UniProtKB/TrEMBL annotation:
Gene3D superfamilies the UniProt entry points to: 3.40.50.12370
Tree of life domain: Bacteria
Protein name stated in the entry: Universal stress protein
Native species: Methylobacterium longum
Domain UspA: residue ranges: 165-284
Stored Pfam families: Usp
Family membership: Belongs to the universal stress protein A family.
CDD domains listed in its UniProt record: USP-like
């Protein structure tokens, strides 16, 4: 007789959340709440890296500042990062989630390097999407994607509780898109509805592996999937954003950085566009 059906998100055993403080007037991290509720839903272990950017002695920090003032600011940032770690540990205990925390004070780029190293030891990493003076959030996302071999969920403001009932899969037939969809299978199987969306001209959509050819693969994994081919309109990113809103997507799955980051920087790109603002948390893989 066949064994019991796997529990939703049963493939997730450990989740890493990373947040970093570079200024004293920091908005609350959305990733922390999202990661905690995700770990609870999955029955997974939660690890939180709450880092403070240590500016004293950091060559990346602009000079011309009073050293005593910088040192005092470093201590305040360390206290802030430690307070977030302690509060998260308490919230996790109350929610019945096993949690490990650390609050290192590190210079740049050791913050992002340490995060990427930790990410290799977890099933996925949850990070914030948010504007920062030195774009530390984006650096952490990119470093984790390119150097950990693990997927990242990038969470925009306003999404501090995990939800994945309706998932949009951005599909362009690339290896990155296939990797992202495969890594997201625990979420796709548990979702109520999944829509594969391809954006482009008819020739562009059929020049790669069409979404209609990929859908049976997901269906064989028990995913409730539909396919939607859309014209570019004002652009791929704008069309995907609009469709995510119409579909009421709780999560968007996409392959990250199909082109090299330098080309993305000069010529734009869907990944970079969504990291400047997304209507839903992004499940990214490279």
């Amino acid at each position: 007789m066949p064994g019991p059906c796997p529990a939703p998100l049963a493939g997730l055993r450990d989740v890493l959340v990373g947040t970093a403080f570079e200024g004293e007037r920091e908005a609350a991290s959305t990733a922390v709440g999202y990661g905690l509720t995700l770990a609870k839903a999955a029955g997974a272990h939660l690890t939180l890296q709450s880092s403070a950017w240590r500016h004293s002695g950091d060559a990346a920090w602009p000079g011309g500042f009073d050293s005593a003032g910088v040192s005092a600011a470093d201590h305040r940032l360390q206290a802030l990062a430690s307070a977030v770690a302690a509060r998260s540990a308490g919230d996790a205990a109350q929610a019945g989630v096993v949690c490990t925390t650390e609050a290192p004070s590190l210079p740049y780029p050791e913050i992002v390097d340490r995060l990427a190293e930790r990410a290799r030891l977890h099933d996925l990493t949850v990070l914030d999407i948010g504007p920062r003076t030195y774009d530390l959030d984006r650096q952490m996302i990119e470093k984790a994607l390119f150097h950990s071999g693990r997927p990242v969920i990038a969470v925009p403001p306003g999404h501090d509780a995990f939800a994945a009932r309706r998932i949009l899969v951005a599909w362009d037939g690339s290896a990155q898109a296939a990797r992202a969809a495969n890594d997201a299978l625990p979420f796709l199987r548990a979702a109520e509805a999944v829509e594969i969306v391809s954006v482009g001209t008819e020739a562009e959509i059929h020049a790669a592996v069409p979404g209609a050819e990929f859908a049976p693969h997901l269906a064989r994994h028990g995913v409730k999937v539909s396919v939607n081919d859309l014209p570019k309109g004002e652009g791929v990113a704008a069309t995907l954003r609009a469709q995510a809103g119409l579909f009421r997507a709780d999560m968007i799955v996409m392959g990250a950085y199909r082109h090299a980051p330098t080309r993305e920087y000069f010529f734009g790109g869907v990944t970079r566009s969504f990291l400047r603002g997304s209507p839903a948390p992004l499940f990214l893989a490279h």
